[in-house]
Amino acid sequence: MLVLDGKLVSGSVKESLKAETTALLEKGYRAPHLAAILVGTNGASETYVASKVKNCEDIGFVSSLVRLDENVDEATLLSTIAQLNADPGVDGILVQLPLPKQINEHKVIEAIDPRKDVDGFHPSSAGKLMQGLPSFIPATPYGIMLMLEFFNLPTKGKHAVVIGRSNIVGRPMSILLSSNIPGGNCTVTVCHSHTPNLKEICLQADILVAALGRPEFVKADMVKPGAVVIDVGITRVDDPTAKKGFRIKGDVAYAEVAPLSSAITPVPGGVGLMTIAGLLKNTLQAYKTNNGIV
User: Fold this and answer.
1) Whether the domain at 28-113 and the domain at 139-272 fall into the same CATH topology
2) Annotated catalytic, 119?
3) Is 52 among the residues known to form the active site?
4) Does the N terminus or the C terminus of the chain have fewer Cβ atoms within 10 A?
């Protein structure tokens, strides 16, 4: 059984990006700049954004963080995005999700300049992805594809089952796995909360992607022996015995599924690190495209 170590793969991606950034700086170009907007003080969001900022610094990117109050009105957030859109020194913009209830998430995503949409959530990016055109790929699916390619896991002709249909992970993941690209050419089944016989479908999967946000939902009796299991879930579960008062759980019951698998991602230490790698690659691509760098 192969543990798909996200630290190993993301480290390789970061080294490559750092070398490319260094070469650009030596030629007299400025550093790529990623701007993040954080609304409120959600603990998980704070952790994610801090990690993104640190990873930018590690590879020589400039990063800036705009903090807004939990009770901020939608107009103020949209105005902040407009300012970043207009700033030629900002290459990529991300708004950390989820947002407070008073904010229309779709309106916020659509407000980001598609040329700076490094999260890959804008309808323009999604449409291009659907048509197989060059676009920003949502960071988590992008990271998973990078991982499949790094470990040279066979995908051509395999049956991939994706549990979850979100616009952030499930839908784009299904498109990528079925596309004629490295890590693709699968036959893909997308499952969700209304799928009958879910267990039986999962048992057919050569590659199983769990992206539904329910801790340890996928049990051993849902996994075909020898399957590649990609666990996208990351949920804080209260645990008074843990030092921090909680533990991070994935969507897969790792202890019982791992022995059945030919390869599996751990949580933490798997897909989460690859999400940041995908984001960084998107940011460098935005920087090069918007500045006419080949």
Assistant:
1) yes
2) yes
3) yes
4) C
